[in-house]
Design brief:
alpha/beta; eight-stranded mixed beta sheet; 32% helix; single chain; Rossmann fold; three-stranded mixed beta sheet; 7 helices; 11 strands
């Protein structure tokens, strides 16, 4: 059974995110999606093997109302040696869970759009060929926990890590958004935050495929 901790704070966007994410994951495992404040209820009496922590418009540097709850969920999965994948905000929160929020920083130049990254050989990236992924973030992980190794990077820094010897991963980029979904997020956020439009970059050369993001998600759930 897979648990998705959906940190998307806007109710309509959270529902849309859940629907789109579930379409990308091809598994026989049951998927339970929980939201801040509901994890204990949604997890009660269930046995999970995998945890996915979503992105969020919230900053992992700040104190958010769900910090304690999400930390407890990670505690449980880590102690029971279960698989964890943090995406964007989830990637940052997971790194901070290991060594504290001092490992996070506000970026001088936020990344919005499609940027190239260098992925290193890793089971999470099996059969993944594209080096260009969606980015929607103004914070970053600037220091890796001691027992974590770098598995993806870019000119701006750390883009992915794995806890050594365990199926525990963080990725700064978004394998959970396809092109159209990300475009909708950019348009919605830039309407209220003009700086997003200024930072937007699209480095996709011609024809684009969204299959690599889904492959990463499915590589994870099949571990």
């Amino acid at each position: 059974m897979i648990l998705v901790y959906n940190c998307v704070s806007e109710p309509e966007a959270a529902v849309r995110y859940e629907k789109n994410l579930l379409k990308k994951i091809n598994t026989d495992k049951e998927i339970i999606v929980t939201t801040p404040g509901n994890a204990e209820k949604d997890m009660k009496g269930k046995i999970f093997t995998h945890l996915i922590i979503s992105g969020s418009a919230a900053s992992a540097i700040d104190h958010n109302t769900w910090d304690g709850e999400l930390s407890s969920v990670i505690d449980d999965f880590f102690e029971e040696k279960k698989a964890i994948l943090g995406i964007c905000y989830g990637h940052q929160f997971l790194a901070a869970w290991f060594i504290g929020k001092s490992c996070l920083s506000v970026m001088d130049k936020p990344e919005y759009g499609w940027h190239p990254i260098e992925i290193k050989p890793n089971p999470l990236f099996k059969d993944v060929s594209s080096g260009i992924f969606c980015h929607i973030h103004g914070d970053s992980v600037s220091k890796l926990p001691e027992k974590c190794e770098l598995i993806a990077e870019s000119d701006s820094g750390i883009q992915g890590f794995q806890y050594k010897g365990r199926n525990i991963f963080g990725v700064q980029f978004h394998p959970d958004y396809n092109y159209e979904e990300a475009k909708e997020v950019f348009e919605r956020r830039s309407a209220t935050t003009p700086s997003i439009k200024k930072a937007y970059t699209n480095k996709i050369p011609g024809e684009h495929t969204d299959r690599d993001g889904a492959r990463i998600l499915n590589n994870f759930v099949n571990m």
